[in-house]
Specification:
single chain; 139 residues; alpha/beta; Cytidine Deaminase, domain 2; eight-stranded mixed sheet; 36% strand; globular; protease
Length: 139
Amino acid sequence: MIEFAREAYDDVVYAGYDGAPEEVCGVLAGEYGEDESTVVEAYPTENVADTPEIRYYIDPEEQLEVIEAIEEAGLEVVGFYHTHPAGPTEPSETDADRAAWSGYSYAICAFDGYPYLGSWRWEGDDAGFEQEVVRVVDR
């Protein structure tokens, strides 16, 4: 399961609205757990993919800077997020090919009709993604 503080959830959704028609992306921060993680903040990053309308890619140097900022804030990396402006919330084959953080969450927000955020834990190349329950709480 992954729990989002309402503000972090809203930040991901509104970033998706503002970034459309391109995919937006970033890093999720909070408290990491092997079975359950809590997101208290979403750190946006630039999407530097060649085709940002259908792909996302975080520059490795920017990713490292964001991870350092998260750690300096006393938080942990929980996972990553990106949007699928035309849906669906399920990870694509490209998402699976590029997933690298085994045991971490990959949240995807889709806007096909209304915003919906789904999340999957990457269990590695052999197991793939496992869907998580998403809970949003007011803090």
